From TrEMBL:
Lineage, opening ranks: Bacteria, Pseudomonadati, Pseudomonadota, Alphaproteobacteria, Sphingomonadales
NCBIfam families in the cross-refs: LptG_lptG
Membrane topology: Multi-pass membrane protein
Originating organism: Sphingomonas albertensis
Main localization category: membrane
Gene: lptG
Pfam family, one: LptF_LptG
Record carries keyword Ribosomal protein: no
Coiled coil: none
Protein's recorded name: LPS export ABC transporter permease LptG
Length: 366
């Protein structure tokens, strides 16, 4: 008995997959080159404005910025790669030959769907291992106006915590829980809203009996105008580690596992996590949007090329792709505001445009 395969022949599948991947990554390379050049024109002045910065810092910025551009525009490159591949095959009557051999629209698109799923897996791994780290480092670098680059890419920077009337500023924080380490501590000692003294220290860690031991500490007395060396001193006995480590959680600068752990810590501390949960789900739905692009761009594959409507079909495919990106950003923004549940904010646009793509594909096949 003859078996029916969902895919076309092995030769055709490899041919279509290779054509699709070459066009996708060629478009991505062109977009990254142009967008990085434009971005560098706007940022190079600020980078070189810091004393001592030069060509090395310019290239350092490019190395940190390129992964962000790649991550953002990879799904769009998949869309353009799909449209270019299908337009080329349509003009060469290859789609007509495949349809004439008895293949359905879904079977024609199967090699592109498999290839785009592989792109989605690569995108997730790239975002998790490269983009999150480069984003965290770039954010810290920009906070110091492109000054000395922080070493630890997992650090939190410029965190403020209130302890009664006192204010505590920490330049850099590493670790979690009792293993939290503080760097560049400044404590503004206030009484009744008036500044009494300023304590500064280079390092700090969790004290055994509670609070935070900072050293070497100095105390500037505002009234007297004198500075006193304190050595090691314990401050902020009522401040928990999570108040430092979770004061500023940047979802874009954390990997999937790190963000999930941060959400758990925030939840245990009784703090809101809805916006971060939406970002966590989007770390999955974002890369997976590449699988949607062959469906949305499939409108360019079907229809007679000689009818003169091939360009219109390509524009329709691009329009569907742009509409998805707009809807995706809108839903994520609504999730951050708390208007949408986190799961809905991340997955609703994907599911909606999956149904739209299927409807267009079925309509084209009919």
């Amino acid at each position: 008995m003859k078996t029916v395969s969902f895919f076309p022949s092995r030769t055709v599948a490899i041919y279509m997959g290779r054509m699709f991947l070459v066009r996708t990554f060629a478009v991505l390379a062109a977009l990254v080159l142009v967008l990085q050049a434009l971005d560098l024109l706007s940022e190079s002045g600020d980078i070189l404005a810091y004393p001592g910065n030069g060509d090395a810092q310019i290239w350092q910025y490019v190395a940190l910025r390129v992964p962000q551009i790649v991550s953002r525009f990879l799904p769009f490159s998949v869309l353009l790669g799909t449209i270019l591949t299908l337009i080329t095959m349509n003009q060469n009557s290859e789609i007509v030959a495949l349809k004439g051999s008895g293949l359905s629209a879904h079977q024609v698109l199967a090699p592109l769907l498999v290839a785009s799923f592989g792109v989605a897996i690569i995108s997730f791994a790239f975002n998790d291992r490269v983009v999150a780290r480069s984003t965290a480092t770039l954010n810290q670098w920009q906070k110091v106006n492109y000054g000395k680059l922080p070493i630890d890419r997992g650090d939190r920077a410029n965190v403020w915590v209130r302890d009664g009337d006192d204010l505590i500023e920490v330049a850099q924080i590493r670790g979690r829980g009792d293993a939290t380490r503080l760097g560049g501590i400044t404590l503004y000692d206030r009484t009744g809203g008036n500044l009494v003294a300023i304590l500064r220290a280079d390092h700090g860690k969790r004290a055994p009996g509670g609070g935070w031991m900072i050293e070497p500490a100095t105390r500037f007395d505002v009234a007297r105008g004198s500075v006193t060396n304190l050595g090691s001193v314990v401050i902020a006995r009522d401040v928990r580690p999570d108040q430092f480590t979770l004061a500023s959680v940047d979802a874009d600068g954390l990997s999937f596992g790190a963000l999930k752990a941060a959400i758990g810590d925030l939840s245990d501390a009784g703090r809101p996590t809805k916006a971060l949960e939406g970002s966590l789900w989007h770390k999955l739905s974002g890369p997976l949007s590449s699988v949607l692009m062959p469906l949305l761009g499939a409108v360019a594959a079907f229809g007679i090329a000689r009818s003169g409507k091939l360009f219109v079909r390509a524009v329709i495919g691009m329009g569907l792709g742009f509409a998805f990106f707009v809807a995706d950003n809108f839903a994520l923004a609504m999730g951050n505001l708390g208007a949408y549940p986190p799961f809905l904010a991340a997955w609703a646009p994907f599911l909606l445009f999956f149904l739209i793509g299927e409807a267009v594909l079925i309509r084209s096949e009919e």
